[in-house]
Amino acid sequence: MTSHLPFAFPIRVPDDMLVEFGKFTGLRWNDTLSMEPFVCEALRNYMKPAPAVQQQAAAPSETGYQWKEVFLPDGTRLRTSFDHKQYFAMVAGAEIKYGEHAISPSCFANLYGSGNRNAWKSVWLRLPGSTEWLLADVCRSARKAAMARLMTGDATTANAKRDEA
Hints:
Structural class: alpha+beta
Number of helices: 6
Helix content: 25-40%
Mean pLDDT: 80
Strand content: 15-25%
Shape: elongated
Distance between the termini: 62 Å
């Protein structure tokens, strides 16, 4: 690797990160010279902005999983974590699938750990066509607020005002 500077900058990388990087690249972690091109590539990729992804509007789904007030359309991703490890499930048809198993949100939230976790507080959702992860409890609160507006007639008033504009 050529440098325009007359000297190199040594950078300290923690041992555990070198071991992890070695496993990722298949290189021996104690041979840092052979890792240099991979480290440089990772830094360049980190600094290079990702190309903009064109999001297509997701077609409304008739199938999905009804979780109390919240409807999770087919293709919704679920994420939870325990002990710094993330776990993912997906809505397939009318079921939440974790691997080959159909499970409830509560079961998914409590697969690992003490079994006392509230799924609304520990499961994150990514709806089809979205890149954002939302806490399930936030989705539930928004749905409850929308239902309350609908029941009190605020939704009709808001729609009428919007249509007038």
